[in-house]
């Protein structure tokens, strides 16, 4: 699949599954995604008054967690190219009455912000989906301030022997069927294992963080490597 058709395909996937996305995430990950998100927030240690952009924010969970930490004196942007995903994020935002959270329709490949704007740039379960990982990491690095933080929480390639084989059986074979049964979407959920096949392992992604200009890269493997958190720092001027 070339870059443009991947982008169009991914866009169509998320436009079509938006209303089931949160429920399916919880079901398919056995609720693990909530623990992974909590772990990521603990490591980021966001402080009141800081600013953050959550790229590919989807239905907004990470952006909302960031907005909780920055408080109203801070600023958080959630950006996504799926209007249907953003609509659900908007509902959650209005329930919380978070005026300091701004939801923006945009493309991760070209962020509509000046250099050195945010303290943090995060991306959750989405680097697998973008047409060019290097470009997105470079964009995220560009928009954070010197000394700022870029973080990705993403599915990865499990490392525990035994568990690994069992996991792939679930992920490659069973998961698309669960997608069909619970969300009536087979093709869209077959995309999930497919997208991981071509995605770098955690060490390689760590090197891509460095190539994008980040330093002191930290890698945390979660649930035996089913997911990984990468954190990198933009060098101070
Ligand atoms: C698996 S969802 C993750 C959503 C959210 N970050 C989370 O943690 O639940 C991937 C999201 O990336 C968005 N996305 C994929 N490619 C994008 C791009 N090039 N620009 C902006 N958003 C993109 C999709 O619309 C979708 O909402």
From TrEMBL:
It catalyses: a 2-demethylmenaquinol + S-adenosyl-L-methionine = a menaquinol + S-adenosyl-L-homocysteine + H(+). InterPro entries: SAM-dependent_MTases_sf, UbiE/COQ5_MeTrFase, UbiE/COQ5_MeTrFase_CS. This is Demethylmenaquinone methyltransferase. S-adenosyl-L-methionine binds at residues 59, 80, 107-108. The keyword Iron-sulfur does not apply. Keywords: Menaquinone biosynthesis, Methyltransferase, S-adenosyl-L-methionine, Transferase, Ubiquinone. One of its GO terms (biological process) is methylation. The keyword Secreted does not apply.
């Amino acid at each position: 699949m070339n870059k443009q058709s991947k982008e169009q395909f991914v866009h169509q996937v998320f436009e079509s599954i938006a209303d089931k996305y949160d429920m399916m995430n919880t079901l398919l990950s056995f609720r693990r995604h909530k623990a992974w998100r909590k772990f990521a927030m603990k490591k980021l240690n966001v402080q009141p008054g800081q600013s953050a952009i959550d790229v590919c924010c989807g239905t907004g969970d990470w952006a909302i967690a960031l907005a909780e930490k920055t408080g109203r004196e801070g600023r958080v942007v959630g950006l996504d190219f799926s209007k249907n995903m953003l609509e659900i994020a908007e509902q959650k935002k209005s329930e919380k009455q978070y005026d300091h959270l701004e939801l923006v329709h945009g493309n991760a490949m070209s962020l509509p912000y000046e250099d050195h704007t945010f303290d943090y740039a995060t991306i959750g379960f989405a680097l697998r989906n973008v047409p060019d990982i290097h470009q997105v990491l470079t964009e995220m690095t560009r928009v954070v301030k010197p000394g700022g933080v870029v973080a990705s929480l993403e599915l990865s390639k499990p490392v525990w022997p035994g568990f690994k084989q069992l996991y792939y059986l679930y992920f490659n074979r069973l998961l698309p069927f669960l997608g069909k049964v619970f969300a009536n979407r087979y093709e869209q959920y077959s995309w999930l294992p497919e997208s991981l096949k071509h995605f770098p392992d955690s060490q390689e992604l760590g090197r891509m963080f460095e190539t994008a200009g980040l330093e002191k890269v930290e890698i945390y493997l979660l649930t035996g490597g089913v997911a990984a958190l990468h954190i990198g720092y933009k060098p101070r001027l």
